[in-house]
Amino acid sequence: MTRLGRLLAGLALVLLTAGCSGAAGPSPLPHPPSTHDRPPAAETSGAAPSAPASPGASPRGSASAASPGAKPSARSTAVTSLEAGFPDARTTGPRTRLEPHATGNMSVRTDGMVIKGWDITGSLDVYADDVTIIDSRITSANWWGVNLRPGHHGLRILHTTITAVPGKGPDNGGVDYAVSNMGAGSIEVGWCDISVFGNALSMGQGDIHDNYVHGLVPFRNAGGEWQHTDAVISGGGNTGKLVIRHNTLLNPVGVDRGASASIGLFADTGHVSNTVIDGNLLAGGAYALYGGGDGAGGITVTDNVFSTRYHPNSGVYGSVTAWNPGPGNVWRGNRYADGTPVTPEPAG
Q1: SS3 for 132?
Q2: CA–CA separation, 49 vs 27, rounded Å?
Q3: Which of 92, 130, 280, 345 satisfies CB 3.0 to 4.6 Å to 154 for a cystine?
Q4: What confidence category does residue 163 fall into, taking pLDDT thresholds of 50, 70 and 90?
Q5: Looking at residue 47, what DSSP letter applies?
Q6: Rounded CA gap, 12 and 78, in Å?
Q7: Which residues contact 305 (CB under 8 A, 6 or more apart)?
Q8: Comparing C-alpha atoms, which of 83, 262, 54, 94 is closest to residue 192?
Q9: Are 331 and 303 in contact (CB under 8 A)?
């Protein structure tokens, strides 16, 4: 079943159950497109940059539901000892004093540039290789917090807080991506405190580790539909490797306001492949994990804790869906916060 089909089926069940400075200067904000995932255009002189198309763009249509309803469970929604030791506000974000920088929407164009100790009011649009952002804070009112443009690689974002101003973004008041990888290679995001954005970490390849993603804020996109929310989202078709290791990935948004997943591996632009999901704390979404579906290969999901702090089954409808148990895929050591093993049903 396609992701859209699962979403529509879930909506029907919900209704039935309910009874019914090497950088260039600031760039202007783009005009909102008709939908939040219109393909981007490269920046040209005098033209405003467009919103990046997420590598894991959500399907068209309503985001108000997911797959059929949750199975009954006696699991508690209390936080347990298995959830201790995962990243939180104390272990992520900047470690040094910050200096204010009202950059606006800044284009970074110098290879090897290091941004350290900046308290940025604005966003960073990276047209360069091997840029490092470390021990900083970014407060965005743009489509993104940090966006790596096509043809570039080597971006590292470490010990940084990336957040946004709800209601001030260009997508009908919303903000879409804390970090978007449109580039040619892997990027690293580590020890970052990330909040507010609809799809926080959007990439098909990269090294995502030791981050605290929380407080996603729902909003209606420019088409008037609820933006799908995911802590991490990948749309498939990737040529590199995606590693998601030892993160706290929380999606408290309700399905009636667009919740999709804590980790969403969606075959929107091609088969999902070459992905490692290891040792994370997941909670929330319609399902906490969308596993790539039919055709997914080289997917390893090991030793993750599916928290029940929001829902008895981690996500509204369950812990995992769209898991392909075929050759090359590994499911091992995954459990609920009370220690009960998590066993996925095959993708259908």
Answers
A1: strand
A2: 7
A3: 130
A4: very high
A5: -
A6: 29
A7: 82, 83, 86, 280, 281, 282, 334, 335, 336, 337
A8: 94
A9: no
Residue 110 carries which side chain, given as an amino acid letter?
Answer: T
H helices present in 184-272, as ranges: none
- Asked if 162 and 144 touch (Cβ cutoff 8 Å), the reply is no
| Paired tokens of 101 | 């920088």
Please answer whether residues 211 and 232 qualify as being in contact, where contact means their C-beta atoms are separated by less than 8 angstroms. Answer: no
In terms of Cβ atoms closer than 10 Å to its own Cβ (0-12, 13-18, 19+), residue 50 is middle
Residue 226 has pLDDT above 60, yes or no: yes
Which residues are CB-contacts of 2 (< 8 A; sequence separation ≥ 6)?
Answer: 59
Please give the residue that has the higher pLDDT: either 42 or 219.
219
Q: Identify the CA nearest to 170 among candidates 28, 27, 26, 32.
A: 32
pLDDT(322) > 80: yes
Which has the higher per-residue pLDDT, 324 or 5?
A: 324
Cβ contact 171:58 at 8 Å = no
- Strand (E) or helix (H) holding 60: none
Does 321 or 44 have the greater pLDDT score? 321
Q: Are 280 and 306 in contact (CB under 8 A)?
A: no
At 68, phi and psi to the nearest 5? Answer: -55, 160
Helices (H), the chain: 3-18
DSSP states along 157-193: EES-EEEE-TT-BTBTBB--EEEEE-SSS--EEES-E
